[in-house]
Amino acid sequence: MSTPHYVTIGQGQLRVWRSGYGPDLLVLPGLIAAASTRADQLARDLPGWTVTAVDLPGIGRSSGAWAEDIAGLARIIADGASALGLPPCPLLVFDLAAPLATALQDSRTGWQPEAVLLADAAAAEGWAARHLAPAPLAPRDDGTHLAVLWAHLRDAHVLEPRDARHPAVRGAPLPDPAAQDAMLCTASAAPHRYEALWSLCLDAMPSLADPAGIVRVETLDAAAKTLSAMISKQPDAGPLPPTQPFADPLRVWHDYANTPRGRVHLRRAGRGRPLLALQSAPGSSAPLLPLLHGLAPGWEVIAPDYLGNGESDKPDRAVDIGTLAEDVLAVADALGLDRFDLWGTHTGALVALELTVRHPERVGRAVLEAPVLIPPDFSADILTNYFPPLVADRWGLHLLQAWNMRRDMFMFWPWYRQERAAARAIGIPDAAVLHDWTMGLLASGAHYDRSYRAAFHYDTRARLPRLTRPALICAGPADMLVEGLAEAERLAPAGTEVASTPATVWYPGQEASAVEATIARYAAFLRGDSAADSHRVA
C-alpha cells in the first residue's frame, strides 16, 4: 500500500502518495484515477522505482493549491517536486494531465523532468474531440451531484473515448468500486476545481497532437520497457522531508503522525501549549475547523482523524473507546508531547475521558463536550439501527445513502427515527456544508461505524467519577446530548465544572456571537481562570 505525505509550498499544500523502492519516478495520475490508486498500481507493475504520485492541484488533499491556468498549475507541481527534494527524474503522466507535463518542460517552472512518458493519450484526445466534460458538480440539496460525478468517472473508463454509444473493448482493466470511490473522493474535495481542472486540461489537449520531448506509451508494459533504459542512470530515492507548517501560525495545515498503530492524519494550527482536539464519529476532524481557528491564537491545536476514519489508516481490528484513547496517546508520543490538554466532543469526549483516567500524568486540563449519557435501552436501539453497511458498489448507490444519512442526522435524533416527535430544531445546513460532512463519512468507508459504535458501548457512568484532572463538561443548547449534563453533574467528582455553553461550535449555522462566546469559555477554562464564572447545571 502506498503511503500519503504532505509537502507545504507557498501556494498551499500538496499531498503525494509514495510506494516502491529504487530511483525516483514522479507520476501525474490524470483525472479519472486517484493518486493513491495509481501509486499502488505502479508499485506492482513498475518494480524497481520509487513512485511519488501527486494529488493534482485543486483536487484531493491538494485542493488548497490552485492556479487559473496550465502554466500556474505546472509551477505548483514543480514547487512541490523541489520541496520534496526530487532530482530531475522520469515523469509518467496519464490522460488529461498531459498538458501539465508539457508545461513542466519549461525551464521557468524551476523543476524539470528528465524524461516524460504519456499514458492513455488516445483516451484524452478522444474526450477532447467530443468535448467531454462532467455535468455541473455544484453540491445540490438532494445529493445527486455525487451520482452525476460517479457516472462521469465510470463512463470515462467504460465508454469509447470518441463514441459514447459503445463500451471500449481495449484499454486498462476497469477499476473496481473501491478504486472509483477513491477517485470520487479525490474529485469531490473541491468539485468546482475538479470541473475547472478538467476544462483547462481538455482545452489544452489539441495542442499536444505531436508533443515534443514526450514518449507515448500504450500500456504499462511499454512504459516499463522505456523506463528500463533509464533506471541504471538514476540514484535511489531519498526519504521525504518532514511536512512543514505555514509561515502564518494561525493557518490550518495537514500532516501525518506515524504510530505503531497506523498512520494518523492530522489537522494542525497555532503555537503554544499543545491541545489535542478529538472529533465526533463517524467522519473526519474537518468539522472541528472552527475550533482550530478559535483556539489557535493560544494553543497548538492538533485534531487527528481516528484510525479507521477520515484520511487515517484503516486497520482491520476491533475498536472500543480504550483503543481510541491509546491511539491518541500514540499520536502524542509520535509528536513528542509529554503533556497536553484535551478537548473532545461526543465520541471524542469519551476518548478524552478515558485517556485522562488512564494517563492522568499526561493530561493538563480537559474539555468534555456532550459525553454520551443516554439510557441503556436507547443505546441498544442505536447499536441495532444506526449503522447500516456503507460499501461502494459499481453504480455508486452508496453515495445517496451516505448523503441522506448525513442529512437526516440534522433532521432527526436518532436519524433513523423518521417521525415528527424525533424532529430536531438545529436546521439543515446548506448543500456545500453537507457535502463536506458527507465526504468525511465516505472517506471512512466501510470502517465508518467502528469508532461510532464504541461510543454507545462505553460505560460513561462508571468512568466519569474516576476523573482526577481539571475538567469542564459542557454542551450547547442545540446538541442532542445536552440533556446528559444533569446526569454528568451528579456523576462528576468534586471540582469538575459542568456548564451549558451558547453554541456547539462545530455545528453549522450557529450564531457567530454564540460561537465566539463558547470559544472564549473553552479558552478561559483551559487557561485555568474560569472557576469563578462557572455556571453549574441545576
From TrEMBL:
Keyword Hydrolase: yes
Domain spans labelled AB hydrolase-1: 274-387
Keywords: Hydrolase, Plasmid
Family annotation (InterPro entries): AB_hydrolase_1 (IPR000073), AB_hydrolase_fold (IPR029058), AB_hydrolase_sf (IPR050266)
Stored Pfam families: Abhydrolase_1
Key word Phosphoprotein present: no
Top-level division of the source organism's lineage: Bacteria
GO molecular function: hydrolase activity
Gene Ontology, cellular component aspect: membrane
Name under which the protein is recorded: Alpha/beta hydrolase
Taxonomic placement: Bacteria, Pseudomonadati, Pseudomonadota, Alphaproteobacteria, Rhodospirillales
